[in-house]
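Reply to dn_fold:

You asked what the input looked like. This is it:
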Amino acid sequence: MKCGYGDIMRIRRVLTDPSIMVSADDAGLDNPDNAINFILDDPRVTALMPHKNIITIFIAMNLILFDAHIVIVEGETRKNSYKYGRQALSYMFDNTTCQKMICMVPTYNKSASMFAAHLGFSREGFIKESFLKDGEKHDQVLYGLTEEDFRNHIRGIN
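and this is what came back:
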């Protein structure tokens, strides 16, 4: 992904939002510059900013598998979150080699689990003690979404 100065400033604004920094701290991104450098410098990363309060980050795990991270500023409408989440997934399935997405959601984050399900992700597994929050280890749920399942899910919504 190539970013202009305006894009970097928008990414910085979202990443430094207080509702986001709580999670970013636990993910080891205690400094917004570290997150921005990761987004800009890692060739496996595709980052899209479909809306001013939403960043989607996709990390290539291999040629066809991507790890999805959708960052939404607290207070953004559900309608926009779902709309732009679907657009970002569509972009990845249409314009990259991606055939499957995964995401990992800490078990305490019910809203993120509901968001993943609304986008068409299905629960595929459980990862014990794999996320650190406030110095404590938490389990995560592994969700997956194939391109075919995504297309079928979208047809069911429209």
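The radius of gyration is 15 Å.
Hope that clears it up.
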